[in-house]
Amino acid sequence: MEKERFKELDAELKAEDVLNALEDLSEEEFEKFKWFLQQPASIPGLPTIRKKKLARAQSINIVDLMVQTYTLQRCMEVTTQILKKINRNDLLQRLLFSKNLENRMCLQHKSPLELFCWTDQTHVCVSCSELNHKNHELVPLSTEHMGNEEEPRRRRDNEVKQMIEKNEIKIQEITEIVKNSKDAAEKEKVEGFLVTAALKESAERFLKKLIKEIEDKQKTTEKEAKDFIKDLEQETSELKKQDFEDDDHQCFSSLKADPPKKNWTEVRVHPPSYEGTVERAVAELKETLWEDMKKQLQLKRVQQYAVDLTLDPDTAHPKLILSDDRKQVKHGDVWQNLPNKPKRFSTFANVLGNGSFSSGRFYFEVQVKGKTDWDLGVVRESVDRKGDIAPCTEYGIWAVVLRNGNEYSTGDDTTEVFDLHPGPEKVGVFVDYEEGLVSFYDVDAAALIYSFTGCCFTEKLYPYFSPFLNNGGENSAPLIICPVNQAVCCSVEAQ
Predict the structure, then answer these.
(1) How confident is the prediction along the chain (495 residues), in pLDDT tens digits per residue?
(2) Distance of CA 36 to CAs 23, 43, 59, 91, 304, Å?
(3) Within this chain, domains 1-99 and 307-491 share the same CATH topology
């Protein structure tokens, strides 16, 4: 009795497996399955099932019809044949696996299914692994593997995901390489433009100097010749006058002395020799070009970081006068009635730029022509605006100053004094926040005046200007923020 019950349960399990396989078919595949049940060629030696019975049958009805028509064993065989025909090998494998589940036996070798082949995605015995699955990826077949047909698919999915991730990482890596290469190329192109511009400026200065030298020589020759001609004309005039007087007063001619005569045969006009002028100039240019170009190049590099500045009237000392465009500032004699805001300077005649910087690099240029005193540089945001302080790094002011027309220094207690003759008419200020660098340039000479190095900036920095005192009109010229022609300026928003 128990044996019959076991067979009954076993039959139910197998019929259920067929049902599960059919329920996994798409609607189109299910219709094909029913069509093959009607075709004698599909199931040689077995009766077909009539179309009428299959017309509206569901999966469970189809299983019952096949079991009643073929027996359970033949039902399994018919199902496997049709699954092959409709290309559902995955369901076929699952069904075959389920069929042998109770004994885990390989039908071919009658050996236990102890291994799973990841390469072919099937269960194999040891004999199969040695014959048909050599060098394949094999793993021991646990109950978990045998009962979970989704594991192979999950593993494939993981492998595909890993491949996709690797490909995406590689794409990102290649993209980054191309970007870096492009950035490097752009940097080299900019460097090339800067070098070319520096060479062009040097060549233009060379040509201007050469032409002036040639023209000066020619002017000297022309002046010398003009003086000789003038003397000759004067002497000729005197000789003509004397000849006329001799004709009228012959009787007295013996009494007059002959006029002095210059020996003009010995006088020569020596035209300048221009031979070798260009060669000598080129030789001189070769000696100075590289150093000159390096200075020009360095200036142009920092000019790339030019910013468009204006002055902040809310920081200006009450005696300072700002232009309408806020690009110029000078010292007046009248104290203006202005709000005493916390950020306004009230002791010294200072004003700040209308923009702050807390990272990166920036550059600006200021015309100082005609002034005898001025301060230029940058200050930290917390600089004392009400106290009696002078330009000093200790107070958070990094500046170069001019006093008494020719005394240039850093304004520190330990003052660095510069011998600048002639002094600059336009000063460039460059800041590299991360490098802790503040540099000052004579723009027209493309020469570095001074650099503060190793600075530790922890606050926002503001451009700093002081036209200093008017001194009775002697220092009345304004400080003027100039556009930087060699760089594309970017606007700076007020902070």
Answers:
(1) 434 433 443 444 467 878 888 888 888 888 888 888 888 776 677 788 888 888 888 888 888 888 888 887 778 778 888 888 888 877 776 776 555 444 456 767 777 777 877 777 677 888 888 888 888 877 775 544 444 445 556 667 777 888 888 888 889 989 989 988 888 888 778 777 777 776 777 778 778 888 888 888 888 888 888 887 888 888 788 777 776 665 555 544 444 455 556 666 666 666 766 676 777 777 776 666 667 777 878 888 899 899 999 999 999 999 999 999 999 999 998 999 999 899 999 999 999 999 999 999 999 999 999 999 999 999 999 999 998 888 889 899 999 999 998 899 998 655 678 888 888 999 999 999 999 999 999 998 889 999 999 999 999 999 999 999 999 899 999 999 999 974 333 333 333
(2) 17, 8, 15, 17, 80
(3) no
pTM: predicted TM-score of the whole model, two decimal places: 0.50
Can you point out the beta strands (E) in 33-162?
115-117, 122-124, 138-140
On the 0-12 / 13-18 / 19+ scale of CB atoms within 10 A, 250 is exposed
At position 404, the amino acid (one-letter code) is N
Class of domain 1-99: mainly alpha
| Domain extent listing, the chain | 1-99, 182-297, 307-491
Is the domain 307-491 a CATH 2.60.120.920 member? yes
Tallying the residues shown for the chain, one arrives at: 495
